[in-house]
Design goal:
Helix content is 66%, strand content 7%. The protein is built from 16 helices and six strands.
Amino acid sequence: MNKIKLIIQREYLTRVKKKSFLIMTLLAPVLMAGMILVPALIMTSQGKEVKRIAVIENGSHLFEGKFHSTEYLKFDYLKDVRLEDLKQNFGDLGYYAILYISPKVGYMPDAVRLISHKQPSLEVTEYISTSIEKVIEREKLLTFNITNLDKILKTVETKIRLQTVLINDAGEEKETSTGVAMAIAYISGLLVYMLTFIFGAQVMRGVIEEKTNRIVEVLISSVKPFQLMMGKIIGIAMVGLTQFFLWIILTLVIIASVQGIVFHNNQNLQEKVQHSTELLSAPTGEAASVQFNEAEKIFQALGAVNWGLVLGAFVIYFLGGYLLYASLFAAVGSAVDNETDTQQFMIPITIPLLLALFIAMGAFQNPDSQLAFWCSFIPFTSPIVMMARIPFGIHAWELIVSVSLLILTFIGTTWVAAKIYRTGILMYGKKPTYKEMWKWLRFKHY
């Protein structure tokens, strides 16, 4: 046992002292926090550059005064101005764009043009399109000679915001977000896939390097091949766990810091949005309020996640999946003399990993599908697929059965890998085949 501890210590310290470990430890939390924060920041961000748009309408004055200016979007209705003349110098006049409305706009949807030197943002185009649609719809309704039209429209206007609430057996309710659950499922499943593959490949490369340099001949004179293999696998697993926990801590720090900076003036921003809504009585004001509320709900939903279950399951499935695949990677590394010869043996290992990733992507849409359900129990796919299902809620027995099968399979693959490892680690100059490796499995060592 002391010899295994020494091997674990060597593998661990050698890797955590590398610059690549430090770079990835610092860079990954920024990327993970960005994947969580960017959608929320987009919802609350507002362009601070004031955009002035010149409105030209030929043949009528239907839209005069109908475009409500916002804090960052101003509309100037121009009369007696030719479009061709204004196109020559509208930028010099301080205009962001020209909105040209043809008289045919009532029956030709593409009769409106927005002319600009730069591609307009989606916010600008959506606001203009919605405003024009509302004006035309109102004018068409007026042809029916409906009295009190404005009052009727205001009365029938309805907005629905579907809230998802989970209830447990005790009757306790908790508001959740499907989008947040999908994000956590995607990130956790992808992380298990990446970490299992990356650190498993490190085990294989380490075995090949020691075998090629003949270091292993010296090592096995002091330790048994099984001890060497397990020490290497466990040591690299500890490196992965160290990096993972540092990622979690740094990611949470980044999220908390950005959340505090962005939302420290929640009340003032909310009041400003509501004030704009009342003044404009237009879609953009309402959209801004909804966007702010949605961003706030994202952070509330993140706080409502059972992080203990998610992180605990992640550690278990990462370790189980890694130990299962790392033992196979170690067996492959011991059987070959260089990485080029590993290709024929890597295919049976990588196919279940890739298959699990594809099934996990489908599980985001339907976590209770038959394919996702059964693959969350198959040990070669369960580490990734089950992590994609957990954020949506699973029964405790499913977790217990899945983990138990994963542990049993890991023990079996370790036994198989150890028999291949102890023979292949000293084999040189001969390219192994599946038939040859099958013979190694039946060798008896005394």
